[in-house]
Amino acid sequence: MTLKQRYDGVIAWFSENMPVAESELRYENPYQLLVAVILSAQCTDKRVNMTTPALFEAFPTPQAMAAASQEQIYEYIRSISYPNNKARNLAGMARMLCDEFGGEVPSDLDALQRLPGVGRKTANVVGAVIWQKEVMPVDTHVFRVSARIGLTRGAKTPLQTELQLERHIPSHLLPVAHHWLILHGRYVCTARRPKCGECGIAQWCRSRAEEAAL
User: 90-124 burial string, b = 16+ CB within 10 Å, else e?
Assistant: First the structure.
């Protein structure tokens, strides 16, 4: 099977069977999504969604969060992984949003990455979800699933994975393809015990083919 055949098969299956794929983080506006994505680093969306309602009630706007101390923010996110670092980042992010961007989340990805706690993946997630930017955010699920299926070859870093996927997935599909791979990795192609018997793309999976050949 050629790489093109694999991509064509995988994309066709997801397009038919998962035409709508969205973030499982709960948010109402760009500010809330940005906060949720910052909190989601090395933490489950389920835990983030349990934490953000009280956080957003206390700090409903960037201005409200900018006026809060790191210690005040910490009290609302203490159940999240790395709460001290994330509280510091959220406080700094909110202040920069207010001081430099008028309290509005910038749509420019480079500008987004200037914010504390916002790296390439976080900026790409916000850009893809809010503004349908044609980018491929790479988290642990996307990194693992892409390599296991065979969509990437020899990718050692998230950036290498991102560039390979962007090279082969039609650009207009990148925002939804990001969610295809995340959801597939979260519920089917799991890290320890992948549910290959339930996998709709098994016929295009390189790992499955390699196992069958043994």
Answer: bbebbbbbbeebeeebbeebeebeebbbbebbbbb
